[in-house]
Specification:
With 247 residues, this protein is mainly beta. It contains 2 helices and 23 strands. The strands form 7 sheets. Strands 11, 12, 16, 17, 20, 21, 22 and 23 form an 8-stranded antiparallel β-sheet that branches. It has a 3-stranded antiparallel β-sheet with strand order 6-3-10, with no helix packed on it.
C-alpha cells in the first residue's frame, strides 16, 4: 500500500510540474484564453444583442456596460465586421471595444495548425476568402507576431511572403492522412473550394463517385481529386467518404 501511495504521489507531482497542453491554462491580458477564442470585448453602455433561431425568429440578450465577453468567430464582409459571442453576434461599432488575442497565442492550442482567410472583402493581392496556409517543411514557413500573420513560400531563389491581420484568419487543426487513398462518396454532395462550412458549394458529385485523397484533412473536410485526374477539385466532408483502398 505504501509503495502504491508513493507511485500515485509521484504521478501527481509530474502532472502538476509538467501539465499537458490541454491542462495548462493560457493567460492573456489578465484573463484565461480558450481554444478558438479570437478576442474579448466589452461595451461602453448597456446594449441589446441578438441571435437568430433555426425557425427564423430572434432572441435577444442585454449585455452590461464594461462586462467582458469572449469572442469566437469573426465575420468580415461589405466593409463590416461582426463578432460572435457564443450564439450571439455583434456588429463592430463605436460602442464595442474589441481586444484581439494575439494569433501566436491562438495558434498555441494546435499541434499542426491550418490558417484560413475568413475576410470576404478580398482586400489582398493574393488572398481571398477561403485561402488556406500551413507549413510544408522546407518549402514554406509561417511567422506569427502578435496580431500579424506572415506566410512565406520558396520560389527556388528567395521567399515570397504574404501578410494578413490575425483577425482575418481562422485556425483549424490539420490531420495528416495517407496520400492517394481511394474514397467512395456515400451520398450526393457538393465539393467546396475551401474547408469552411460557411463557404458556398461549387461542384455537385453523385453518390458512388470515386476520389483520390490529398494528405490533409481540415475542419472535417478532405481535399480530393477525381480518380485519374491530377488537379484537386475541392473539399468534401470526411463523414461522407468511405475508404475503398489505395490506388
Amino acid at each position: 500500500m505504501k509503495k502504491l501511495f508513493i507511485v500515485l504521489l509521484a504521478a501527481f507531482v509530474l502532472a502538476v510540474v509538467n501539465p499537458t497542453k490541454s491542462e495548462a491554462k493560457v493567460m492573456y491580458d489578465g484573463a484565461e484564453v480558450v481554444k478558438e477564442q479570437t478576442g474579448k470585448m466589452t461595451f461602453k453602455k448597456d446594449i441589446k444583442v441578438y441571435k437568430r433561431n433555426p425557425n427564423g425568429t430572434f432572441d435577444s440578450l442585454v449585455v452590461k456596460e464594461n462586462n467582458f465577453f469572449k469572442t469566437y468567430d469573426i465575420e468580415k464582409y461589405d466593409g463590416k465586421t461582426f463578432y460572435h459571442m457564443g450564439q450571439y453576434r455583434v456588429q463592430a461599432t463605436d460602442l464595442v471595444v474589441f481586444k484581439e488575442v494575439p494569433i501566436k497565442i491562438r495558434a498555441s492550442f494546435y499541434n499542426n495548425p491550418t490558417y484560413v482567410v475568413i475576410n470576404r472583402d478580398g482586400n489582398y493581392n493574393y488572398g481571398y476568402y477561403g485561402k488556406y496556409f500551413n507549413e510544408t517543411g522546407d518549402s514554406s514557413y509561417v511567422d506569427l507576431n502578435n496580431e500579424q500573420f506572415k506566410y512565406c513560400v520558396s520560389n527556388g531563389v528567395g521567399w515570397l511572403c504574404e501578410k494578413y491581420p490575425g483577425t482575418d484568419l481562422k485556425i483549424f487543426e490539420t490531420t495528416v492522412r495517407q496520400i492517394d487513398v481511394r474514397y467512395e462518396l456515400t451520398e450526393n454532395a457538393e465539393a467546396k473550394h475551401t474547408p469552411l462550412k460557411e463557404a458556398k458549394p461549387e461542384i455537385m458529385f453523385e453518390k458512388g463517385s470515386i476520389f483520390s485523397s490529398d494528405r490533409i484533412e481540415v475542419n472535417g473536410y478532405l481535399l480530393v481529386r477525381l480518380e485519374g485526374e491530377v488537379r484537386y477539385i475541392g473539399w468534401l466532408p470526411v463523414n461522407l467518404l468511405k475508404s475503398v483502398g489505395d490506388k
